[in-house]
Amino acid sequence: NLIVLDNGVKGLVIKNKIEKPILLKKDNIVEASTGAFLGKVVDFAIKNSLKGVEWAGGLPGTFGGAIRGNAGAFGGEIKDSVFYVEALDNNLKLRKLNNKECNFSYRSSIFKEKNWTILSARIKLAKGDKKELGVIAKSRIEYRKEKHPLEYPNAGSVFKNVSFEKIPEKFKDIFKDKVKQDPFPIVPAAWFIIGAELSGRKIGGAQISKKHSNYIVNLGGANAQDVLSLIDLAKSEVNKKYGIILETEVQIIGY
Fold it and tell me: Which of 64, 109, 141, 210 gives 20 to 30 Å between its CA and that of 197?
């Protein structure tokens, strides 16, 4: 979910690789460090016949990243399972926050808003059928392989999906058949980009993917400015055609 500007980042960049063993606590609570890949947490839950995160099958990134951005797909969100989170604030004070204190919202949290560092977290799950959960997770993985341009370098979904309520009335009929629960009624941002006839558009080595138009892929040799130019183009053309301002989901960092 990161786009690093071409001049880089002035300062120290630390990659979170904290990955202690994932633990099963009482009352179906799973504890993991935030450097653990989300896929490992999903696999651990299914292995222990616990439901609540199977929707995240195939979702890339770390457990901490999913919490920071309140990752969601197929109607599920990580906020629905978070029990409590340990994090360092900007004064390096250790804080323990319950679900409500995490201030989760659509693709955001207090950690993203305040740029706090998440160390570990516990999620509360429920008993489920291991085989059934495995089938669901596998179907999500296969969906991503089929629908998303994973064969090219990319930063994931570029724009947040659009709340159906925010679509101007004169365009709602056009998109009413595209509505999904994510977890509230939304229209995927890709449909607006397709409608603005931008699918496949290239700038430099970057391209708005034909396979999934909410992805910008690196065809080879793309720089950050190529990607940012396509983002600006998509925002401008979608706003011009539909009166909708697309919000970026990717984080743009650097100077």
Answer: 141
